[in-house]
Amino acid sequence: MPSLKDIKTRINSVKNTQKITKAMKMVAAAKLNRAQSSVQAARPYAHKMHQVISNLVARAEEGSHPLLEQRDPVDKVLVYAIASDRGLCGGFNSYLFRGVENFIRDEELSGEEVAVVTAGRKSRDYFRRSKHEVEKNFMDVVDGPGYDEAKRLAKHATKQFLTGEYDAVYVAYNEFVSAIEYNTLVEPVLPLSKEIFGAGEADGEEAEEGMGASEYIYEPDEEGLLAQTLPGYVEVKFLQALLESYAAEQGARMTAMDNATSNAEDMIDSLTTQYNRARQAYITKEICEIVSGAESLKG
């Protein structure tokens, strides 16, 4: 049985840990508030740009821009795994890595070679230990991300696709839902096609019906417009992924630290009860020894 001093030392240690987890929860909550505001502000713009680009792609002629090039067969695939720089955020990173692993397994079953680009220290460390090919590591892009960080990723992805190094590009990230919920997504980025935009073709048909089946008039021209908008859409796609991932990370960390604080409180209560029982047993033992000594002197 541990001594009173050992139990007291452990209680103090758990209390100190609880102070740390409580402080980390408050910091994560403050960051989450700002990150959530950024996500909510960016979503309408990203959604509207998605609609515009989907209409352009639906009407674009084949070969009108290199980013629209459909390669058959697809031999090499590049996936960007956006994780976090730090841990202590529950299953945030492990769920993402599991999703990327499942994606890689499915692609390899189809006969495709898959390489990974990591964003965040946890992603770098995980895939460095794995058997998968790591094409590049991006540091300092996931903590408080902005447009500059998204532009770095988009520029690299566009270059890898246009040079023919890879035939398709995907991005894997955790989509923010709420402070306690996120979804792991692996979404296609390049090439830009009707399949990527999903409902883009249907939206184009509806737009045609609303305009009397008329065609768009491009100004200055179709190639010039696509050359400006398509790279910008790739940048917005990565920006949205970074913002969503950052907000989900802060929500996961806040929840994890809240659970850790509650668990520490339960542990303190349990140790306090154990300390009181040990102290009571020690006092009882001392009383028994005193009474026994007094009785022996009377004897």
TrEMBL record:
<keyword id="KW-0813">Transport</keyword>
<keyword id="KW-0406">Ion transport</keyword>
<keyword id="KW-1003">Cell membrane</keyword>
<keyword id="KW-0375">Hydrogen ion transport</keyword>
<dbReference type="GO" id="GO:0005886">
    <property type="term" value="C:plasma membrane"/>
</dbReference>
<dbReference type="InterPro" id="IPR023632">
    <property type="entry name" value="ATP_synth_F1_gsu_CS"/>
</dbReference>
<keyword id="KW-0997">Cell inner membrane</keyword>
<dbReference type="GO" id="GO:0045259">
    <property type="term" value="C:proton-transporting ATP synthase complex"/>
</dbReference>
<comment type="similarity">
    <text>Belongs to the ATPase gamma chain family.</text>
</comment>
<comment type="function">
    <text>Produces ATP from ADP in the presence of a proton gradient across the membrane. The gamma chain is believed to be important in regulating ATPase activity and the flow of protons through the CF(0) complex.</text>
</comment>
<protein>
    <recommendedName>
        <fullName>ATP synthase gamma chain</fullName>
    </recommendedName>
</protein>
<dbReference type="GO" id="GO:0005524">
    <property type="term" value="F:ATP binding"/>
</dbReference>
<keyword id="KW-0066">ATP synthesis</keyword>
<dbReference type="InterPro" id="IPR035968">
    <property type="entry name" value="ATP_synth_F1_ATPase_gsu"/>
</dbReference>
<dbReference type="GO" id="GO:0046933">
    <property type="term" value="F:proton-transporting ATP synthase activity, rotational mechanism"/>
</dbReference>
<keyword id="KW-0139">CF(1)</keyword>
<comment type="subunit">
    <text>F-type ATPases have 2 components, CF(1) - the catalytic core - and CF(0) - the membrane proton channel. CF(1) has five subunits: alpha(3), beta(3), gamma(1), delta(1), epsilon(1). CF(0) has three main subunits: a, b and c.</text>
</comment>
<keyword id="KW-0472">Membrane</keyword>
<dbReference type="Pfam" id="PF00231">
    <property type="entry name" value="ATP-synt"/>
</dbReference>
<dbReference type="GO" id="GO:0042777">
    <property type="term" value="P:proton motive force-driven plasma membrane ATP synthesis"/>
</dbReference>
<dbReference type="GO" id="GO:0009579">
    <property type="term" value="C:thylakoid"/>
</dbReference>
<dbReference type="InterPro" id="IPR000131">
    <property type="entry name" value="ATP_synth_F1_gsu"/>
</dbReference>
